[in-house]
Amino acid sequence: MDTVRALRGQHEPKRLTCDPGKLVGLSEKLIRSHWKNNYGGAVKALNAVEQRLAALLDEKDLPPFVYADLGGDGRTGGTILDLLKEWLGNYERWETEFRRTANALAGGSGWVILAYNPYNGEIHNYWAWDHMHNAPLARPLLVLDMYEHAYHMDYDAAAARYVDAFMQNVKWEEVNRRAEVALKREDSVP
Q1: Domain carrying residue 27
Q2: 127 DSSP 8-state letter
């Protein structure tokens, strides 16, 4: 199995940035409990999910439901290809995960978003149910609309055929431009 940096599942909780014993009106017990249980638990869950997703990438016959800017020629290159290789091992593995995420949304609603996270320098495929559920502050590089209105007229319920058509028409020059802009802005992150 190729190394999939974006799905390595080795995140560590960051240290508290304050002395919880010196906060006014909030107990040290409350802050430490939330840091350990809520935040620490979320980090553990993220690691487990990433490791499982990495393992699923090797299952060639995985049904999509398990995995719960157009106009180009569908060929990638440049900075974005380098990022895909760095974080997912190779383009094909990235595309497999992107397609599985899209097909897992078929018949439902949401978007698949290839995004750059300026805080940790990683790129990931995310899925978003609606305008309120997304990767906070991530910079979208490529977005695939999986709401039924996006494909039903041309493909009825055959959402996988729509995903195929989308992938053939991605304007990678634009995705590459967005990646380059995102990387240049990295130094401006607070």
Answers
A1: 5-56
A2: E
Residues 20 and 107 in one domain: no
Type and span of the H or E element at 125? strand 122-128
Strand-strand pairing, 139-145 and 122-128: unpaired
**CA dihedral defined by 110, 168, 93, 118, rounded to 10 degrees?**
-60
Q: What is the pLDDT of residue 69?
A: 42
Q: What is the pLDDT of residue 3?
A: 67
User: Do 182 and 117 belong to one domain?
Assistant: yes
Give dist(CA 123, CA 139) in Å, integer. Answer: 9
Query: What is the model's pLDDT at position 97?
Result: 93
- Specify the pLDDT at position 25: 75
Number of structural domains (the chain) is 2
The residue ranges of the chain whose pLDDT is under 50 are 1, 69, 190
| Residues making up the chain, counted from first to last | 190
Q: Which residue shows structure tokens 């996270």?
A: 117
Q: Which helix (H) or strand (E) holds 75?
A: none
